[in-house]
Amino acid sequence: MKKSLAVIISALCICACCFYAGDLKPAVKADSLATEVNSSAASMALIDGDTGELIYTKNCDAKRYPASTTKICTAITVLENYTLLDLPVPIPDEAVGVEGSSLYLQKGEMLSVRDLLYGLMLQSGNDCAVALAVIVGGSVDGFVKMMNETAQKAGALNTNFVTPNGLHDDDHYTTARDLCAISYYAMKNDTFREIVATKRHKTPYFNHNYDRNFPNKNKILFNYEGGNGIKTGFTKKSGRCLVSSATRNGKTYICAVLNCGDMFEECMRLMDCAFAEN
């Protein structure tokens, strides 16, 4: 009886361990059928946007600096943890005067979280990232912890975020495979998809008699048939980075290129190949 009980307990433990390990499997599926390709990117991955299957790869597990493609995780973390998207909120002091690309948020200004998300994803506002972090997470550090939890949930197991905007930090990194996993996860959210597919957005401009009116920096939306997302990025140490998405005839592909000088052209070329093979 004792022996039988021990066998049962052992089996249950094995099952529990398998279940836990299963929870941590990458959302981007194993690359047994993936094709290693030549690419101008230092690393890249292209996945089936409907299944998460890895299709094309080059150095897809090499750790890279993601620059503003970080904001993909910022946005989906906000959307999963904050519901009052259209309620105006005061801009935190920490978000005023943040370096780099900016919406030029001002002290005393109020904006909705939805407008801040558009500023984050279209204009790549580093100040919007900080504002959202403080509003949703209580502090930048608190929100970054939430981002890393989101990344893990998405199956991005070789990623560590330190900032909500992707400004350089040696300990802030991801991989092309992980960026695809986070993007695949984020694109399942209706509001996220709507935001990243928007070509132009208008928001109130504090102390001005006109609105902020800005286009999306992602040329995939304007220059590629079926283009519907998702985020650009650049710092001197990361190089040019892009995660792109397109849907044609009900089929979607997501492509991430890191440190890629011709990032738009390369993503379009790789997605063309994927659509041609479909």
Supply the key terms.
alpha+beta; two-stranded antiparallel ribbon; 9 helices; single chain; Beta-lactamase
SSE topology sketch:
Blueprint: H1 2-23, E1 35-36, E2 43-48, E3 54-58, H2 71-81, E4 88-90, E5 110-112, H3 113-121, H4 126-137, H5 140-154, H6 176-186, H7 190-196, E6 200-203, E7 212-215, H8 220-223, E8 227-235, E9 239-248, E10 251-258, H9 263-277
Parallel strand pairs: 1-3
Antiparallel strand pairs: 2-3, 2-10, 4-5, 6-7, 8-9, 9-10
- Fraction of residues in helix: 25-40%
| Count, helices | 9
Average pLDDT works out at 90
Total count of domains: 1
- Give the strand line-up of the largest sheet: 1-3-2-10-9-8
Q: Regarding CATH, which class?
A: Alpha Beta
Coarse structural class = alpha+beta
Shape: globular
Main beta-sheet annotation: 6 strands, mixed
- The SSE order reads HEEEHEEHHHHHEEHEEEH
CATH homologous superfamily placement: DD-peptidase/beta-lactamase superfamily
State the total count of DSSP E strands.
10
Would you tell me which CATH topology applies? Beta-lactamase
The portion of residues forming beta strands comes to 15-25%
Radius of gyration: 20 Å
Distance between the termini: 57 Å
CATH architecture call: 3-Layer(aba) Sandwich
Low-confidence stretches: 1-26
What does it look like?
This protein is of the alpha+beta class and about 280 residues long. The protein has a single domain (about 30-275), classed as 3-Layer(aba) Sandwich (Beta-lactamase), CATH 3.40.710. Helix content is about 40%, strand content about 20%. The chain has helices at about 1-25, 70-80, 115-120, 125-135, 140-155, 175-185, 190-195, 220-225, 265-275; strands at about 35, 45-50, 55-60, 90, 110, 200-205, 210-215, 225-235, 240-250, 250-260. It has a six-stranded mixed beta sheet, sandwiched between helices. Helix 4 (about 125-135) packs across helix 5. The termini are far apart. The model is unreliable at about 1-25 (pLDDT under 50).
